[in-house]
Each structure stands twice: as structure tokens, then as C-alpha cells.
Amino acid sequence: MDLDRLAELEKLVDKLLEEHKKAKEENEQLWKQINEALSKIEKLDKEKRELETLVETYRNSMNSLIQKLQNMINVTESVYEEKREY
Length: 86
Prior knowledge:
mainly alpha; 97% helix; single chain
């Protein structure tokens, strides 16, 4: 092998090493972004579950209040009807 061929191979190896280094850095950056996205998804999913629980609690409270109001209206109507009959 002559020196020119060795120099060419050395440049090729250097280029491959540099490309590998860049690819590795890019890969690490992409994994970092993936992990950040997964963390955000987990956080948002947790917040969603908490909000769903809160909505269900509010719904139950509203249903309870509506039932109490309906009972009060019924009692009031009964009392009013009784007074009208006298």
C-alpha cells in the first residue's frame, strides 16, 4: 500500500469517527427529548385524572344539591297546598 492510499484511508476513518460522534450526540439529544416528552405526558395524564376526579366530585355535589332543592320545593308545595285547603 502506498502512502497516498494510507492517507486516504486515514481520512475516511477520521470522517467515519466524526460522523459516528455526531450521530451519537444526536441520538443522545433525541433520547433526552423523548424522555422529556414522556415525563410531560405522565404529568399531563396525572393532571387529567385529578381533574376528572374533581369534576366527578362537583357533579356529585351538584346532584346532591339539586335533590335537596327538589325536596325543599316538594315540601314547600305540600305546605302551600295544605294552607290553601284550610
